[in-house]
Amino acid sequence: MYAFSKSVYAEYPVSRAFNKIILSDLESYDGTKKQQLKSFLEDLQRMGCISGMIGDFIYHADCKNFYIKHLDDLENIREEIEDSLGEAVKNRHRLPHYTFMCWLCFEEYCFDIYRSSFEK
Predict the structure, then answer these.
(1) Domain DUF7222 spans what residues (predicted)?
(2) Cβ contacts of residue 117 below 8 Å, gap of 6+?
(3) Which of 14, 52, 108, 120 gives a 20 to 30 Å CA spacing to 39?
């Protein structure tokens, strides 16, 4: 999907894993692929991973396995986010670090796709 390549995070190998997660969830939305993607991304912006809408990131054990597999990419994305904000990203919900990192990076990746594809 072309929209994925527009993300500033597309260079990270973890983006391919994120893309698979997104694509697996799109079929529950109506419309063209682009409309499905937009609806999915808007839902994620409203509800976030904390809502349980991302099946791959519901359980801490799944997040831990994903984090271990993609540790360097996730930590580098976090550093990019913090550099752009000029401050540390806070784990307000006191989640396990690996769950926090999966949610943070997945949501930021998705928000970046939305910004680059749907905001003019």
Answers:
(1) 35-116
(2) 3, 6, 37, 38
(3) 14
